[in-house]
Write a structure and sequence with these properties.
- α2 crosses α3 and α6 packs across α7.
- This protein has a seven-stranded mixed sheet with strand order 9-16-11-15-12-13-14, sandwiched between helices.
- The chain is of the alpha+beta class.
Length: 436
């Protein structure tokens, strides 16, 4: 049964309960006003520090495969070679991508955090999110670092989950217990999301002792079935990263249990990112079965959730299911998948749409599917007095999905699930006015 939330306060209480701080870590944030060098528009930036009580030898990270990666991603790849990682510093508003001072600015911020924590700058990783192409206000960030460090607390990760947001409507945190220890992750992301190796920004802390080699082996597996199995708008960010740190305070009873719990945390965070996508009214869950090649199955699911026509129809509660077949057939035929239409079965909400090469449509089914889509909708589009479409809610009223099943009936196939979102007036409004 999917969760429902009657109010923003009820949802925030749920997220706060999920934001349990593992042993051996603290988090702190501060905020300052600045004016970007590129535009004469005052703004506010949050600086957040996640700090280990003792530097962690056991850590792992995965990063975007976008060829135009930001300075924090380039620096993060270098940090994987360091013997220890003691902190992560995160800023929102500006992503530090494509500027000539990017690497030097990121290093300077890391050095400032290191100095405040008694660490070398090389033991600090940076992460930035926001507008691409603008310069970091380096001096202002460095000046703000002592306040962020002064605010460090082991009470909760909830304030950090809020501080790293940009266009996100609400914070995202998930936790899981393994034995006497726990794994807790926070994430941000609402647009420019079809991750390739990670999500916009994701940070996972655990007090369970898991060796570096094991963490680095399991994280790509987990990411592949969580953050790499979602899409909001088919765009892979320049700044994507997921980082995991282990304080090693609690013995890990079983590495298999740990990986399953890490998967649980990351999949839930990934689904939260989609549900909080810019202008999202409906979340789609496309389950592909009976396709023996897992890469093909994933491509089929991504083709459905990325189709502008499918996304727009679902946003309008219009069961125009011919668009589903178009999206499925487009990728299968274009890539030369050895799949026969006569073996294809497609369902929405458990209702058969297509079987043995033909649609199974009727007036009754049309009415049933329309009601199903309306039930899965989080809110309706309404223009404000200024004519701009904005989400009316800052929390998800429920966790329902539009369930679509694609089944080709091949033996030996593994089930693949892809989460995606519809395409709304609010998404266009948000991204037409993102910087202005």
């Amino acid at each position: 049964m999917s969760r429902t939330f009657a109010s923003q306060a009820e949802h925030r209480a749920f997220v706060a309960q999920q934001a349990r701080m593992p042993q051996g870590f603290r988090a702190g944030s501060t905020r300052f006003a600045f004016t970007p060098a590129e535009v004469d528009k005052p703004a506010n930036m949050n600086v957040t520090v996640l700090a280990a009580d003792q530097p962690c030898a056991d850590f792992a990270a995965v990063f975007t495969r976008n060829a135009v990666a930001g300075a924090p991603v380039l620096l993060g790849r270098q940090r994987l070679n360091e013997p220890q990682l003691g902190a992560i510093v995160i800023n929102n508003k500006i992503s530090n991508v494509g500027v000539d001072t990017g690497m030097a600015d990121a290093e300077a911020v890391c050095a400032a955090v290191g100095a405040g924590l008694g660490l070398p700058g090389s033991a600090v990783m940076s992460a930035s999110t926001g507008v691409i192409g603008w310069r970091l206000p380096k001096a202002a960030i460095v000046a703000a670092v002592p306040k962020a460090i002064e605010s460090l607390t082991s009470a909760s990760l909830f304030p950090a989950a809020e501080a790293i947001m940009t266009t996100d409507l609400y914070p995202k945190a998930r936790t899981a217990r393994v034995g006497e220890g726990c794994i807790t992750g926070i994430a941000k992301g609402a647009g420019m999301i079809e991750p390739n190796m990670a999500t916009m920004l994701g940070f996972v802390l655990t007090d369970l002792a898991v060796p570096r080699e094991a963490l680095r082996a399991m994280l790509p597996r987990v990411v592949d079935q969580s953050f790499n199995a979602i899409s909001i708008d088919s765009d892979t960010s320049t700044s994507d990263m997921v980082v995991v740190l282990s304080s090693g305070k609690v013995p890990c009873p079983d590495l298999g249990q740990f990986e399953a719990a890490l998967m649980h945390v990351c999949q839930n965070l990934a689904h939260d990112v989609v549900r909080n996508g810019e202008g999202v009214h409906h979340v789609m869950r496309v389950t592909v079965k009976g396709v023996a090649n897992t890469a093909w199955a994933k491509a089929i699911g991504k083709s459905v959730v990325n189709s502008p026509l499918v996304k727009a129809a679902i946003c309008g509660n219009d069961p125009n299911v011919g668009r589903l077949l178009c999206a499925i057939g487009k990728v299968a035929g274009g890539a030369g998948f050895d799949l026969k239409t006569s073996d294809l079965n497609v369902f929405m909400g458990g209702h058969p749409l297509f079987s043995r090469g033909a649609f199974t449509l009727s007036r009754e089914l049309e009415t049933t599917l329309q009601a199903y889509l309306q039930h899965a909708q989080m809110y309706e589009s309404r223009a404000s007095d200024d004519g701009i479409f904005r989400p009316p809610l800052a929390f998800p009223p429920h966790e329902r999905c539009v369930d679509i099943e694609v089944n080709w009936g091949q033996a030996g196939a593994q089930e693949v699930s892809i989460f995606g979102a519809d395409l709304s007036h609010e998404y266009v409004s948000e991204n037409a006015d993102y910087r202005s």
